[in-house]
Design brief:
The chain is an alpha/beta fold. The chain has helices spanning about 1-25, 45-50, 55-60, 70-75, 75-85, 130-180, 190-215, 225-235, 235-240, 265-280, 320, 340-350, 405-415, 425-435, 455-465, 495-505; strands at about 30-35, 90-95, 105-115, 120-130, 220-225, 245-250, 260, 285-295, 305-310, 355-360, 365-375, 395-400, 420-425, 440-445, 470-475, 490. Helix 13 (about 405-415) links the parallel strand 12 (about 395-400) and strand 13 (about 420-425).
């Protein structure tokens, strides 16, 4: 009998020894015991590998030292023990702290240990799953980017289908304003009504442009411009847009370097930044528009830039939102107060111009958004983008299948001094070209029939290389294929833009 008891003791000892060796030898898991108050009573090699503590450094200390300072202040360690005791298990994922102060993402399980129904301690298992979490986050990021790309593609198909017709409508509205203004010079009420129509037309054009930009279907026309001149050109629009409760002040350096950008996109970006700053100040305040030369030495953006900044004294941007403000369709504004495309347009414009955007914000104090545009190489003159109408002469062949748009274009051309012959198809244009007297061809790209405006232009260039050709479009996939072969005038255009486009044509 005595021998059997001794054998059982030896078997129990060997079993406990084998289990202890197994636990102590596991390297991928931190396996250790806690007493009922949370003091570490055992430690394995996995705990040392994952958390950095040797057994003599950690045994006898409270396990809360593995938690972040915030979690300790919130009482999370003791709460985990109480949950394990009450429910039979505690399980979670979260940040933990190594001996050297670095963080890792841990999978944690705590099981209560009982003897005769009484808690005698806890068994704790911790696994470092930082790499798995990082891989999951990267996968989610890729999936999000794919979803965003699909959303933009869907947006492109939608906006591409309606942008041409919508811009034609805006062309009719904005073009007709030139005719209406002649008859209301002495009527302030009608002048204000026309100004409101013009503002709405420009806003509609800007929204369409923003949609096309982020649908990756926008045709841009970069040129060298004077930033100070362009800021001054849109001051009236900006003053009108901010309203009476907001004061707009300017701090523009006199000798700004020239930059090469799409003028329309620059002006839209300025308007978007100012309107966004206005919306951040519900109780009014001051918005500062500044521009100065800046030389950056940082590795990522080293070089010479013109820095255009818009500063408000508004609510500021929360840190968890700051990384999303340039995402298309993201907005913190109430329904009906924002499209979520304004800052996206700013970001796209800056990067398309070879620059970048920086944001500085303090909650409750305000925000500064700075657009950095690369300095244009010295030597080439700055393009003249002032709204000046140049009188012309000669006969223009206007090719447009939309009679209302054609009527507006004809009126603008005649105001500039041109004689206009109008046809509604590329085939009709070729027949008209056979007659003498055509000095310029002005054609829409989207045309019915087998030949669109771009095909017409290329055919004419082959048979009449000396004939100046100007293309117009509200939107067209074909415009992407022009590749600088012909100048393109974007609808809706104003009379001074038409005048300048014709003046730049090679003769």
């Amino acid at each position: 009998m005595f021998g059997k008891d001794k054998q059982r003791q030896r078997d129990l000892f060997e079993s406990e020894r084998s289990f202890r060796l197994l636990v102590e030898g596991v390297t991928d898991y931190a396996l250790y015991m806690l007493d009922p108050t949370g003091i570490v009573t055992s430690w394995n090699i996995g705990g040392r590998r994952i958390k950095g503590y040797a057994p003599q450094e950690i045994i006898g200390r409270h396990f809360s030292c593995f938690y972040t300072e915030t979690d300790r202040a919130n009482g999370k360690p003791l709460r985990a023990l109480r949950i394990a005791e009450d429910t039979g298990r505690y399980e979670e994922e979260g940040w933990r702290v190594r001996k050297d102060g670095t963080f890792f993402w841990a999978s944690v399980i705590i099981d209560p240990i009982r003897e005769d129904g009484k808690i005698v301690g806890f068994a704790k298992i911790t696994r470092d799953i930082t790499e798995r979490r990082d891989a999951q986050l990267k996968l989610e990021q890729i999936q999000q980017q794919l979803a965003e790309s699909q959303k933009l593609d869907a947006l492109g198909q939608l906006t591409g289908g309606v942008a041409h017709d919508f811009n034609n409508l805006l062309m009719i509205i904005s073009g007709s304003l030139h005719t209406l203004r002649k008859g209301v010079d002495d009527n302030p009420k009608l002048q204000r009504a026309l100004a409101a129509i013009e503002a709405a037309s420009r806003r509609g054009a800007a929204l369409t442009s923003q949609l096309l930009t982020f649908a990756r279907r926008q045709h841009v026309n970069p040129q060298a411009v004077d930033v100070a001149e362009r800021i001054n050109a849109v001051r009236e629009v900006l003053d009108t847009g901010v309203g009476s409760a907001v004061k707009l002040q300017f701090d523009v350096e006199r000798s700004l370097w020239p930059v090469k950008v799409d003028v329309a996109e620059l002006e839209i970006a300025l308007v978007n930044l100012v309107i966004n700053a206005r919306d951040a100040m519900q109780d009014g305040g001051t918005i500062t528009v500044a521009a100065h030369n800046s030389s950056l030495s940082e590795e990522a953006n080293a070089g010479e830039y013109v820095a255009i900044s818009v500063t408000d004294a508004g609510t500021g941007i929360a840190p968890d939102v700051l990384g999303k403000i340039f995402d298309p369709f993201f907005t913190t504004k109430p329904i009906g107060k924002g499209t979520g495309l304004g800052l996206s347009q700013v970001h796209g414009f800056a990067h398309q111009a070879g620059g970048t955007v920086k944001v500085s914000s303090d909650l409750g104090k305000g925000t500064t958004i700075t657009v950095l545009l690369p300095r244009k190489e010295a030597g080439a003159p700055v393009d003249d983008v002032n709204p000046v109408k140049t009188r012309g002469s000669g006969t223009v062949l206007l090719v447009d299948d939309n009679p209302d748009v054609a009527a507006v274009s004809t009126n603008l051309l005649e105001q500039l001094g041109y004689t206009v012959r109008r046809v509604d198809s590329a085939e009709a244009a070729l027949r008209e070209i056979e007659h003498d007297g055509i000095d310029l061809v002005f054609t829409d790209i989207v045309m019915p029939g087998k030949m669109d405006g771009l095909s017409l232009a290329r055919h004419l260039k082959a048979i009449r290389p000396e004939l100046p050709i100007l293309l117009a479009t509200g939107y067209s996939d074909a415009a992407v294929n022009v590749r600088g072969d012909f100048p393109i005038l974007r609808k809706p255009y104003e009379i001074h833009q038409l005048s300048q486009a014709i003046a730049k044509l090679p003769r």
